[in-house]
Design brief:
Number of helices: 11
Helix content: 25-40%
Strand order of the largest sheet: 3-2-1-6-5-4
Pfam family, one: SpoIIE
Strand content: 25-35%
InterPro entries: Bact_Sigma-Reg, GAF-like_dom_sf, PPM-type-like_dom_sf, PPM-type_phosphatase-like_dom
Structural class: alpha+beta
Shape: globular
Domain PPM-type phosphatase: 172-387
Protein name: Phosphatase
Radius of gyration: 22 Å
Order of helices and strands: HHEEEHEEEHHHEEEEHHEEEEEEHHHE
Organism: Streptomyces lomondensis
Length: 402
């Protein structure tokens, strides 16, 4: 890549490209400036099992494993991987594409071998990040990248749920979030949501009653009501109260949504919580795993004008929090054993050193093994949060940040 070019020139050309033409534009830019012979954008599918090449739809290229091979290693480790090919004249650089902690996929670039040096890999990594931001934005105007993520058709309920999610991850200095849903192509009522500001993070995990479209509609109302209350700037307990009223007004107590609401103070690690139903919360501190015992309050929408109370606990740097829906902790094996009794803790312990995204996926993989089939009878949502805390200077923006 020509270092004499202005730093933002590639980004500006990507921004100017039509939404559907980002891959072609990226290929031309990398061919002109880095001598790239081939450029492939691979997006992670909804189940996080494969990386799908973005080509001319409705057809995609041959997928590659999301957890094996050079591209899979780049995706999982979130670090560039240089693949030595059979052709000694070229190498392929696989670069993770991640937007603010949300892993989208991998950019694979074939280059002449003499061109692949550490400086080039760093410049390509910056380019991949810029491309990721444009792919994320382009999703508002084209279905291309959403379609390319699918190995098969989503159910309508799953379509609604995936559109409702903020992403599958979020990262900043104070924390890293990784989340996973299963069954990815037929999810109904499970949801997670978050919002961050200069001084706090609000995280919710919701389990809508029922299955299919009915559960998805209920969860959509619940998440919309919670967002509406949150954006009004009111406290966590009042957010639960307003969402409770909205659901009861619509359904009259016939159905309800179990929801866990968490408010993190980024400067102190104090967490305010409202446990309105069945999601469970675990904390890993060192090698110790404990369930955080919150007062179980009524699910949202069960009765008219239910009062909710906040509780508090504290997280310390190095802590990991794991929130799981009832489809996780309540799943039973063929012999009737609950996943939440012992197998969940074993899975949490085994995944302790894995990053949050991989830990969440590992928990779902452990659930599927415990259940004995990928055809789960209930939705499963897992949210894993690693708490780093705030350094002394973290609250003050650097003068060099602009």
């Amino acid at each position: 890549m020509n270092t004499s070019e202005p730093a933002a020139s590639a980004e500006s050309l990507l921004r100017a490209a039509p939404p559907h033409a980002l891959v072609a534009t990226a290929g031309r830019l990398l061919a002109d400036r880095a001598g790239a012979q081939d450029v492939t954008l691979l997006l992670a599918d909804y189940g996080l099992t494969v990386l799908q090449p973005v080509t001319h739809l409705p057809h995609t290229g041959e997928p590659v494993p999301a957890h094996d091979g050079p591209a899979g290693r780049a995706f999982n480790t979130q670090a560039p991987v240089v693949e030595v090919t059979r052709d000694p004249a070229t190498e392929v650089v696989h670069l993770p594409i991640t937007v603010r902690g949300d892993r989208l996929g991998v950019l694979s670039v074939r280059l002449p071998s003499p061109a692949v040096d550490p400086a080039m890999v760093l410049r390509l990594a910056d380019f991949a990040t810029a491309l990721g931001h444009e792919v994320d934005t382009a999703g508002r105007d084209t279905d291309l990248y959403l379609q390319a993520r699918r190995t098969r058709r989503l159910t309508l309920a799953a379509e609604m749920q995936w559109q409702l999610l903020p992403g599958r991850g979020c990262a900043r200095q104070e924390y890293v979030i990784g989340a996973h849903l299963e069954p990815a192509y037929a999810i109904g009522g499970d949801n997670f949501d978050w919002s961050t500001s200069a001084d706090h993070l609000i995280l919710t995990v919701t389990d809508g009653m029922g299955q299919g479209i009915d559960a998805s509609l209920l969860t959509s109302l619940t998440v919309g009501a919670l967002r509406n209350a949150r954006r009004a700037g009111i406290g966590l307990a009042d957010q639960a109260c307003l969402a409770d009223q909205a659901i009861y007004a619509q359904y009259g107590g016939k159905v309800y949504a179990s929801t866990l609401l968490l408010h993190f103070a980024l400067d102190t690690g104090t967490v305010h919580a409202v446990d309105a139903g069945s999601p469970q919360l675990f904390r890993q501190r060192g090698m110790t795993i404990e369930q955080i015992a919150l007062e179980a309050q009524l699910p949202l929408g069960m009765f008219e004008e239910t009062p909710y109370q906040e509780q508090t606990f504290h997280v310390e740097p190095g802590d990991r929090l794991i929130a799981v829906s009832s489809g996780v902790h309540g799943a039973r094996s063929a012999d009737g054993g609950l996943f939440g009794e012992r197998a969940l803790r074993q899975t949490l312990s085994a995944a302790r050193l894995a990053p949050p995204h991989e830990a969440a996926r590992s928990i779902v993989a452990g659930l599927i093994e415990h259940f004995g089939s990928r055809q789960l009878t209930a939705d499963a949502a897992v949210v894993c949060l690693d708490w780093n805390g705030r350094g002394i200077d973290a609250a003050t923006p650097s003068r060099n940040a602009m």
